[in-house]
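Archive entry: two folds, one per protein. Generate the first.
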Amino acid sequence: MRYLLPLSCLALSLSAQAEPLDPLISEGMALIPPFQQQLMATVKSAVESSGPQQAVQACQQMAPQITAEHSEAPWRVGRTALKLRNQDNAPDPWERAVLEQFQQRAAEGEPLQNMSHAEMVDGEFRMMKAIPTGEACLACHGGSIKPELAALIDQYYPEDEARGFKLGELRGAFTLRRAVD
């Protein structure tokens, strides 16, 4: 009984903290689909016009530009992963912890499709949404990459670690952040 009051206060405190984040979560979640769609459309168009080799080049050249286009103030939008292709997308310590949390939650059976995490970190709103490995991802990120494609990936991304994924596994996450006044 003596623990009931402190637990009630903690529950109310956590609930009160979550409510102010709801508008930021909604706003951030709305930024992900257009970003994801433009990235996927770029890759799909390259594959359809010239095959997976062209998709590797398109990713290397266009993904940073697409990311910049979708990072409209006050938001910064990006992608990160535990197994990187592009070292420029390396997770910071907070992102790494969230990615590891996503892996653990997935291992416990939680579906990746709707998995996300948001919180305030040092005066900044931070949010991540898991990216499951889709069928289209496997040509360049799966376990059976054609040798000529693997050679091209090695050329563009000499430190590539983003291979060997299976359908539905955690590929990475969208990561969003913005300062909060």
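Generate the second and append.
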Amino acid sequence: MTSGIFRVTKQAGLLLTTLLMVFQLSGCGDKEAESRQAFSNFLQNTVMRSGTQLPTLSESQKKSFGNFAGDYAILYGFSQQLNRAINDGIRPVTDELSAIRVPADYQSHRDTLRQAAGALNVVTQQVQNARNLADSSRTSMKLPADLQKVYDAAYAKVVTQPAENVLPLLPQLQTLAQTVVNTGDFLQAQNNNVSFAGNSVQFSSQDQVKQYNALMSQITGAAPVLNQLQPLLSNNQ
């Protein structure tokens, strides 16, 4: 038969174990709440105020964010892919196009522009793949409601809006680059039947003038894409 003292001691031990479990669970909850708050603050104060280039997390930030650091990796990974597409694919083309100031430049820049523009199809696929990967990763996330709202805003700024802005412009940039290359090829083919004097160009036949004007009209129609790309290029400086 169990004595009264033993029963009391046993019950006290059980109570102590229960209290320890409660304290442990409470401690885990506090840590998760702190990580959630730290990550939410980072999204609002850093990510939402950054351009297309997001900062790499420090070791202390990774520790502070806990498991939420993996959710930031989705944003960071897309921003890295987009930056690479801009710097290695888009900017070389826009730089070449911006360097054309007088008619003779169409001819002198056509080969370098042709080479740069050849990468645009790959760039388009890279940006689309990066968008698809980010969207797929995001669907598997389960965030607390308050953090979800903050993360959705950051995701829209870092992934959705840039992707939706740049992808439709890449075919237009390809069209502009190709037309400029075609103009350079046309001028090269005229040999000695064309002459340049600053901002003017002279041909030996009216048919040449007609062809050249048609190319200029196509370039004028496609050129606005450069202004549309400028905000994205400026944010990536």
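Annotation attached to the second fold: The radius of gyration is 30 Å. The CA atoms of residues 102 and 199 lie 5 Å apart.
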